Structure formats: structure tokens, C-alpha cells
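Board notes (copied after class):
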Amino acid sequence: MRKILALIAFAMTFTVGAGFASQEKQAGPGTTKLQIAQCALKVSGMTCGGCADQVKDRLVKLEGVKSAAVDYKTGDVKVEYDTKKTTPEKIVAAFNEGKGSFQAKVAEKK
């Protein structure tokens, strides 16, 4: 009886391990590489950390935006985005279409 249980446990381990390996192989071939870039925005109308959270949440929901770091004190926002899906100008336009008192623009280069 112990030999049968050991054999079943071995077979289950082998089957689960094979399943994980095949999933990794399937994910590799058809994937496209992202082309990530960063841009700097200026967002007006923020007065607190809650505002910064709202701005970040709105930005990361936009097509192609991967992440956003927001400083409400200065209005500075750093955005990482996929260049194949969007541009800084498209991010600003889509952000400004949303509801709320925040307005974004592409930051001027220093």
C-alpha cells in the first residue's frame, strides 16, 4: 500500500512539474518586447497625498502607462510608458479629459 501511495505522489509531482514547464515555454515565443520610456509631467491642483494617489491611479489606468511617481508638493510626476502604445502628449490629453480638478502638461526641460 505504501508503494502505491509513493508511486501516486511521484506521478503527481512529475505531472505538476511538467505543467509548469509547458506554461513557461508557451509564454516565451509569442510575447512582444515592451519599449519603456520615461517622461516628466507637471500636474496642478494637488494639495495632499490623497491627491497624489488619485493622480497616480488615473495615470496608471491609461493605455500604455506602466507606472507613475507623483510628488504633490512640487507637482512633479514621472511616468513610465510603452512607446509602442502611447506618447507623453497622448498621456496628457487622456489625463486632462478625465474628471477632477487636476490638470497635466508635459514638463519643460531644464
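Comment from the instructor: The beta strands are 36-44, 65-71, 76-82, 103-106. Residues 61 and 67 are 9 Å apart (CA to CA).
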